[in-house]
C-alpha cells in the first residue's frame, strides 16, 4: 500500500486517479516529493513523521500546519505522521477540483482544535488567533475576541446550543463562494 | 464518545452516501425493491449516534451494492466526493471490484484568461472577479452581434459592392479616430448598403419596393430575369437581421438574469458576514512567510472593521441624519438631471440657429444630414472611441497615479480599493452605445470587441499593481445579478426602445441606405408580407397574423399582463418560503432544548 519502490505502479496510479481529485501528473509529482521526504531516512518506513512533513515549504508558514497533519493522518498512534495515501488525501482535498463538500468537511475538522466534533468557543478563539497571527499588534484584544465569538455564534448557530456543528458550518460556507476558490 | 472522535462519524458518512447513491439509482434506473432498504440508512443525529460497529459494516455493504449498480462516471464521482481517506475508499473499491476502465476525462485546459482570472480571484476575492466575468459576458454578446451582422449583412454587401456616385477617398490613419473619410463609404456604415436585391452577375438596380408589385413586376420574374441565380434581398435582410439580433439578445439577457437571480437569491440575506469572514478568509495556497504575515494583518484589520460596523449598526440613526442623507440624494439627482436637460436644450437651440444661418461653412453638417443614419453611426463610433480613451486615462490617473500619491504623499499603508461600481457603469455605458449603434453601423460590435479585449488585460494589470482586496466579502453571484440586471434594464431596454422607434416611425433618408425609398424601415417587412400573400394564397394566415399580432397593441398588453401575474405569484411564493424558514428555525431551537432536557433527566 505504501511506496516501497521509487516507481509507482500503473494499477496504483489509475486507482489513485479514480479515488482522488488529482490528475496523473499531480500524483506523480506528489510521489516524487514524498519520496524526497523519505529518502533522508530509512527507506523501509511507510509513513513520514510529522516534523518532516512540516518542513515542506508549502506547509512551513501555514498557521494550521499541525492541525492539517493531525486531520489527514490515519496512523493509530495519533502522532500526525502521514503515509503516501494520507498525503494524496491532503493534496486532493486542497486541489482546485475538489467539491465544496469535501473542502468544507476537512476545513471543519482542521478548525476543530479539540476534536470533539463541534466548534465551541475555545475552538473559535484558537481559530481566530491562528488567522490573525502571532504578533502582538495583530492579535485581537480579549474584549474584541469575546464580541467576535458571540457574533459568530449568533450568526451561525441555528440550533442555539452554543457550538457550531458540521451542518451549520457548511451552511455558512455555502453562502460564501470565496471559499471554494481559496480553500 | 466512541464514534465521534472525527467531526462526523464514518457510519454517518457511509449512511449519508448510501442515501445519495440510492437517490441516484432511483433517478437512473427503475425503483429497487423494498427489501433493499435498510434501517441503517437514516442519518445520525449529532451526539446521539445510533450506529454501532456492526451497523457500520451493514451500511457499508448496502453502499457497496449501490455503487456497483451505478454507471462508471457516477460511481467515480460519488467515490471522489466522499470525505473518507484513500485507504478506506480503496477498500470500498475492492469490495465492488469489477474491471475498472480508466475514464480519462478530457478537461479543456483553460486558455490564458482563465489562469489570469484565478490569480485575480485568489488575491482580491470574488467581488473583483465578478467585474472581469462581466467583461467576458459583454464580450460574448458582442461577438454574437458581430457574427450575425457580419455574416448576414456585411459579407453579402461586400461581395456585391454598389456603384459609387462619388470617388472613393484614400485611406489615411485619421479614419480610426474620426470614423469618417475612407470609412464613410464602406460596409461599416448604413449608407453603403444597397436597397435592391443583390444577385450574382445580375445587377437589378430598379427594384424600388414602393412600386406596387403587380404580377408583371414580381420578385419571381425578377429572379427569372436573372436566370434563376440566388438572390439576396438586402433591405429585408437588414431589417430582419437587426430585429432578430435584438430579439435573441433580449432572450439571452432575460435568461441569464433569471438564472443568476436564482443562484444568488438568499431568503435570509445579509446575515453572517462575520462568520463567513472567519471561516472562509484563509487562503491555504499562501506559502511565503511574508505573504502569510500580510494576510494575517489584513484579516485582523478587516475583522476589526467589521466588528465596528456591526456594533454601529445597532445604534439607530437619528431622524436628522436620515433626512440629511435623503437631501443629499435629492440634490445629486437634481444636478444630474438638470445638467442633462440643460445640455439637450442647448444643443437643440444651437442646431435651430445653425439651420437658420445655413452658412456654407456648415455645408458639411447639411451634407451629412442628407444621409443622417451614417452621420449618427459616425457619431456613435466616436463616442465609443472617446469612452475607451477616457477609460485608459482613468485607469492611469485614477488607479496608478492615485496609488503612488496615496503611498508616497498621504503615506497610507494600504493601496486604494478597486472601485467596482464605477468601472461596471462605464462598461454598461459602452455597451449601450454599441447596441444603439448596431442599426446605423453594423460593424460597431467589432470595435466594441477590440475595446473590451484591450480593457480586460489593461484593467487586470492595473488591479494587480495598484489595488487591494475589498473589505467586505462580496458575494459574486449577487454582484453578477446586479450587473446583468443593470445591463438589461436601463441599458438594453433603452437601446431597444430607441432602435424600435427609429425603425417604426422615423423616415429613412432618401439618398442612401437600404430603405431609401420607403416611408419607414418597418415598411419593408410589411411589403414583403403583402407580396408573399399575393404570390402564395396559402400564406394568407401570415399576413393575418402580422396585422393582428405585430401591429395590434392589444397583444402586447396581454403579454405584459400575463408576465406581471407570473411575477406576482413568484413573489408570493418567496414570501411564504421566508415564513416557513423562520418557523423551522424556531422548531429547531425547540427540539434542541428538548433534547438537552431529556439528556439532563436521563443521563446514560
From TrEMBL, chain A:
Q: Which PROSITE patterns does this chain map to?
A: EF_HAND_1 (PS00018), EF_HAND_2 (PS50222)
Xref: InterPro entries: CIBP, EF-hand-dom_pair, EF_Hand_1_Ca_BS, EF_hand_dom
A Pfam family: EF-hand_7
Recorded GO terms, molecular function?
Answer: calcium ion binding; magnesium ion binding
Keywords in alphabetical order, please.
Calcium, Magnesium, Metal-binding, Repeat
Question: In what residue span(s) does the EF-hand domain sit?
Answer: 99-134, 144-179
Protein name as catalogued: Calcium and integrin binding 1 (calmyrin)
From TrEMBL, chain B:
GO terms for MF? mechanosensitive monoatomic ion channel activity
Q: What are the TM regions of this chain, as residue ranges?
A: 94-117, 129-155, 237-257, 326-350, 383-402, 479-504, 554-571
**This protein's record includes keyword Membrane:** yes
Q: Carries keyword Transmembrane?
A: yes
The protein's superkingdom reads Eukaryota
Family per record: Belongs to the TMC family.
| Membrane topology term | Multi-pass membrane protein
Location in the cell reads: Membrane
Q: Per the database record, which ranges form the TMC domain?
A: 371-477
Q: Which GO terms describe its cellular component?
A: plasma membrane
Q: Which InterPro entries match?
A: TMC, TMC_dom
Keyword terms, alphabetized: Membrane, Transmembrane, Transmembrane helix
Task: Name where it mostly resides.
Answer: membrane
The name of this protein is: Transmembrane channel-like protein
